[in-house]
Structures are given as C-alpha cells and as structure tokens.
Prior knowledge:
The protein is α/β, with parallel strands linked by helices. 53% of the residues lie in helices and 11% in strands.
Amino acid sequence: xxxxxxxxxxxxxxxxxxxxxxxxxxxxxxxxxxxxxxxxxxxxxxxxxxxxxxxxxxxxxxxxxxxxxxxxxxxxxxxxxxxxxxxxxxxxxxxxxxxxxxxxxxxxxxxxxxxxxxxxxxxxxxxxxxxxxxxxxxxxxxxxxxxxxxxxxxxxxxxxxxxxxxxxxxxxxxxxxxxxxxxxxxxxxxxxxxxxxxxxxxxxxxxxxxxxxx
Length: 214
C-alpha cells in the first residue's frame, strides 16, 4: 500500500528515525480511528512548535499531496443552491479532516493568561473543545512545557487520546502520551528539524488511507 511506501521513504531519508516506526504507525491508526468515529484532532505547541501545530492543521484541513474532491452529495446541494457560484465551490473546495490549532485564538489565549493562568491557555481550550475519542497532539522539544503538560492532563481526564512530539527523553509527556514520538535529538532546533518530516509522513499516510489514494 502507498502508506507503507510513505513510511519506508521517511525511514530511508532519516535512518535515525527507525526506532519510531511502530509509534508512527500507531499515531496514524488512532487518528484515523478517531476520524471514523466523528472525532477531531487538536494540536498545541510553543514557539517553533506553535508553527508546527499550525502546519499540521494545514495539512489535514485541505488536500496535501492527494486529490480530495467534495462528497458528490454536497456538490449537488451546492449546485442546486446556486447554479453559478455553487458549481464553482463544488469544483474547487476540498474535503478536510477536522483539525484545530489551539495556538491561534488570540482573544481567548490572552483572556486565559490574564484572568486565570498563562500555563492554562491550552488546557482551558481542551475543557471546551475536547470530547472523548478526539485526539490531542502536543509538541514540546523538552517534553516539559507546562502548558502542554496541563493540556495532556485535561485531555486524559476527558477521554482524549494523546500523541506527544518530543525530544529524546520524552520529558513529562512520556507518561501522558498514548503514543510518544520522541525523536533522537535534545537540542531544540535539531528536535524541531526531525518533527517536521515525521508529521508530514503521518499526514500523508492519513490522507492516503482515508481518501483511498492508491
């Protein structure tokens, strides 16, 4: 299957990621399982990892490498509602996989930081957005970012599955992650450099599986 090819290409290009092969497969499986059951993916991180959180959402919410035409019934409804504009929307819009970056809601984040506690900017959003069966992806190069750790605690309490992207040791997220993707580096920049090809491969594998791109 193509998804196996995607993984093997990743490991060929980054042989030092070989120990993560099983974890990558597990991450793909639990995310797809969540989608099949009407769930969504929530993502958080700080600094460079904040950018990575947004990046992951971007790859899930629209076509990445494959073609994702809208469901035919939705296309028909759009064309019926508006013969001209609806038809254009039907042709251009792409199926998205529900994903939300918890790093982008500035008014809410600043309100939580000001009114409650800055460490709770992600945990508060999990409280409102997270449902049992959803997925929380947290990126922390040390694995010890308090706001990500707190988000994982709330996620576990609410029945979400958790995927941690960290450096070599896993930090505090090691014990809170259903799937731990602890790349073999400790220096922040080097950890982040390895996070990107891992989540790219995961997003490609999910897209391939969900939309039957073979």
